[in-house]
Design a protein that fits this description.
about 290 residues, NADH Oxidase, four-stranded antiparallel beta sheet, 10 helices, about 15% strand, elongated
């Protein structure tokens, strides 16, 4: 984004200097100068300038739009956050693409390090593609369950699959995976729970803090879904398998340099929660 400053409008108030995260704005000889070497194209200076003195040069992609007025009361936002539940039963009816587009549009505004905007989304709505992915993931965990049962050779067998020997070594995962496979073999969908939509959140590993971008975007997707009357579940079984299997990522059309961070199921809930489960008190230290 190439920015220009109109000296006739600029009052040298200094707001742009203070907001620039890359420290690319300087006052020199009574004029504001914007450097481009480390500019991260965040547009904060344009958005903040009270005089409208900073603008994007003609021919540059994208446009600024007026910021909407504050419209979410704190109590309403908190209610949205605390009422969101993980949904593990979905109605079979499809989710309108317009609702999915609203979720994805909001997620592109997630905060990202250095304004890299690296979060990307692969949306599965085709039942055959979704079921094929589920079958591949389940096969992976069948193999994994067999390996962890062989405690003497677990590390070397994982390495033989091209996996880090520490993969899945958390006690919870070691205990949960055999039960997961048992449920799936009994005909229970414990991966996508019959959801009509699966969203894979991924990013280029060479970007700045790509996992954080994915985490923020996934949270926004989940909250937007809640606001639209939809349910979601962040399914780590799928994301862990996709991280471990480059050929599975390739089958989904993900770029070679992209890694998967989260997988989200989306659909119309087939269950309704009447109560909000308790949470432990916030772990806070005032210093």
């Amino acid at each position: 984004m190439r920015l220009t400053v109109n000296p006739d409008l600029c009052t040298l108030c200094g707001a742009c200097l203070l907001t620039c995260p890359a420290d690319m704005i300087r006052e020199k000889a009574g004029r504001i100068k914007i450097g481009r070497v480390m500019c991260i194209d965040c547009g904060h200076c344009v958005a903040l300038c009270p005089e409208g003195a900073i603008s994007v040069e003609e021919g540059e992609p994208g446009e600024f739009c007026a910021a909407p007025p504050p419209g979410v009361e704190a109590d309403a936002l908190r209610a949205l956050v605390v009422r969101r539940r993980t949904i593990r039963q979905y109605q079979p009816r499809p989710v309108p693409r317009e609702l999915l587009k609203q979720m994805l549009d909001a997620a592109r505004w997630a905060p990202t390090a250095a304004n890299c905007q690296c979060q990307a989304f692969t949306v599965l709505t085709d039942p055959e593609r979704r079921d094929a992915l589920a079958a591949r993931v389940t096969d992976f965990y069948r193999t994994y369950a067999d390996i962890v049962a062989d405690q003497e050779h677990t590390a070397e067998r994982l390495a033989g699959l091209g996996l880090d020997p520490a993969f899945g070594m958390h006690p919870h995962m070691q205990a949960a995976v055999p039960a997961f496979v048992k449920h799936v073999d009994a005909g229970r969908d414990r991966l996508f729970f019959g959801a009509p939509v699966v969203i894979v959140v991924h990013a280029d590993v060479n970007e700045v803090l790509p996992e954080s971008a994915g985490a923020f975007a996934t949270l926004i997707l989940a909250l937007m879904a809640e606001s639209l009357g939809l349910g979601t579940c962040i399914t780590a079984y799928a994301s862990e398998a996709l991280r471990a299997l480059p050929e599975l990522r390739a089958d989904l059309g993900l770029p070679e340099a992209h890694q998967v961070h989260y997988v989200l199921t989306v659909g119309h809930p087939a269950e309704e929660y009447r109560l909000i489960p308790p949470r432990r008190p916030a772990q806070v230290s005032w210093v």
